[in-house]
Amino acid sequence: MGSLGGVEVLGIDIGGSGIKGAVVDVDRGSLTTERRKILTPQPASPTAVAGVVAELVDFFSWDGAVGCTFPAVVRNGVVLSAANVDADWVGVHGGEIFAESIGRPVVLLNDADAAGIAEFRFGVARREGVVFVLTFGTGIGSAVFVEGHLMPNTEFGHIEFKGMHAEHYCAARVREAEGLTMKRWARRVDRYLTYLYELFGPDLIVIGGGVCRRFDEFSEWLSPGTEVVAAGLLNEAGIVGAALAAAGGASFS
User: Fold this and answer.
1) The pTM is what?
2) Which of 48, 73, 149, 199 could make a disulfide contact with 153, Cβ separation 3.0–4.6 Å?
């Protein structure tokens, strides 16, 4: 199966624990196939992750455009950090690695930026002023929009907070690893969001990642001084954003 006039694109969302893919209708921002998820290989080396990308392309019998997210700073396809993947990624042109594995060009971008792009286009992030889209999972990703313009690769999960990187204090993985109740974890998230609000004063904070499906279970404990909402596309935003980027539709007008 392939794309037709750029309407359908394969989006792949690479995370620290799982790699998800689906075919996306980029005009509607919706998946046209069931989502396929494969556990992120450990160690998550370039060769191993590229193998999973190729496996997903084969699973969908895909021969059209492909977009991939990556949980790191990505500039012009080059990976510049490696917080939740193998250190061998630093300095590697990830777009070229994936392109070689599937035999066609791949557009690569930061995973939270991809989620933000999708939320701005099809979800709940289209708002005047300053908007944060924060993805809570293995780590914490961030996409920041100022009057509709994306500031790429912000990585607010690595802001120092409580003597550590913020994602080591309140990422979704931390709740599971430390056996925190939803309330205790949400209190940590609230302290972190309040800190971000005091620093930057966003007009809206969008909570994404897998945990957003349970937003109603913890939202009552979030009061950082600004509006906080769950992602409209839930945990599919990264896949949709990757597809949009590959389709050349990652602008925000």
Assistant:
1) 0.93
2) 73
